[in-house]
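histidine kinase
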Amino acid sequence: MRIDRSGLHDTVLAGVVAAASVAQFVLYGPARLQAEGLPAEGVRAPDPLGALLVVLACAPVAVRRRWPLAALCAGLVPEALLDVAGYGTGVSALSGMVLLYSVASHRGLAVALGALLLAVTTYAVGAVAGPVMASGPNEHVVFAVVLVAVWGAGRSLRLRRAYLEELKDRAARLERAHAADTRAARAEERSRIARELHDVVAHHVSVMTVQAAAARRVLAADPDLAREALSAIEHTGRLAMTEMRNIVGVLRTDARAELGPQPGVRDLPSLVEQMREAGLPTSLRVEGEPVPLPAGVDLAAYRLVQEGLTNSLRHAGAGVKAVVTVRHDPGELDVEVRDDGNGGKSGDGGGRGGDSRDGEVSLPSGHGLVGIRERVALYGGILSIGPLPGGGFEVRARFPLKDGL
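Tokens:
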């Protein structure tokens, strides 16, 4: 069972305030006032009725946080009766200050100002209607200043509490925004990894399929050639596993950095040689002066060539030749993959399609060249995909390079 500690603390505080007020009421009777040279004319001597009124004035302190304004009003009634009955002004002033502080610290400005005005009015009425304990008007001014100071302390506490709540709320909002950004970054990273895996798997599996078919055809007639094809399949499979292991390894760590360097234009000679081994005669042409490329553009260019050559290997037909051309123009990188096969026919539905400008391209529902479209569009490039006049197929992209890169 959960205990309301704030209510318990307020109850204890009410008891302490009541004890102190009753002690003041009993000790500072007319005789004590006269002994100290204070005006005591008309002041009523302490009695049980007065003590009861003092306790009733202090009792609302027990609920000062739950109903602060109601508690203040309830406490001011016995205090006013004490003044009117002649027990002296300010007998239960301590409880009134506690209740005024509670209203100022737990309620809005309008209610707090109303409570201050009510407390000052009650004191003024008691000072006029009952015997005056003060030695002069200066005492009334001092008491009014004390009331305002108590009220100001309560308002300061409320403003500080509101400021801290605002800071907590802002921190919670920032934490939620950070969590949303983290989720978005993770989703983007998974999408990127999915594209990378598709490119790797589609390319290497296509090469292995072609090599396996060639090995099957010559297995009986030329075992040595079949053995070479099987060795090439093994080598291609190991390359695929190594590259996929590097990519999937990113999923096992919170770091965003790659576990290994990503392929780029510098790796195109190895890719072309691999395609030659797979049975697609391929040549590479590099025009212009090579310049350092942004990492994203470098990877996108490599994947475009990889997907274009894989497309040619799978769908262009027998006896096809492919040409890869990389042009380094001022402010632009032009990458082109052409073959002289049956470019007008579609293979797996994901390879051969239409033309695009500014990254927009009309493609079938496959994922290969669709992924290329997304890569090129990401870097503001222009992608062109489609059959060539007179036969053949072309995949071409032009990437703008900023600041001379």
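Residues 5-135 form one domain.
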